Amino acid sequence: MAERILVIEDEKKIADFLRRGLTYEGFQVDAQYDGESGLKAARDNPPDLVILDVMLPGLDGWEVCRRLRAGGPTPILMLTAKDAVADRVKGFEVGADDYVVKPFAFEELIARVRALLRRSRVTEETVFRFADLTLNVTTREVTRGTRKIDLTTKEFDLLHFFMRHPRQVLTRELLYDHVWGYDFGGESNILEVYIRYLRTKLEAAGEPRLIQTVRGVGYALREE
Ligand code: CA
Fold first, then answer.
1. 78: CA distance to ligand 1 center in Å?
2. Same domain as 94, residue 199
3. Whole-prediction pTM
4. Centre of ligand 1 from the C-alpha of residue 159, in Å
């Protein structure tokens, strides 16, 4: 079955260009021209990938991205008008998986679309490994080396999210969005508490730390 791509872009010319190109490549394409309609389309009929413009009337692309992210792991490719580092950082902060700078060649875009779809198929795998840590989504077993680790549901969800995004800096907001839901109280220190629980369990036999603090930003799963 054809994979489905949702294009959210208010510039008709670009939306048509994307629709034509992607259809030609064998994808099923739905185009929406503002953020609200895009969000609704994504909710009503979840696509395999979203291509999302930053500059949209009403809800802008950042906000749309943040809300889509809170709804699930669908890959999001953002279209940005300028190659500003700030935009790039912001894109990853709100949960975009990749971005393409306008104006772009279709080939550049399709290469990224394919890479993201491949990656998201990989995330359907049930066993995740990082260093000596293994997490099995089906059996909900977590081991460090040969040592079995018992986690509560929230601890498991949090670790699962880290293991799906190894070595990436995950902001506090993003972690709250994914594990507790996006409108969870920002003043809460629940994340810090759970990070502490996880570290205690993961390091119980004196193993090196795998969940690192990124000061002022959030956390990352990586070796020291
Ligand atoms: Ca636009």
1. 11
2. no
3. 0.55
4. 36
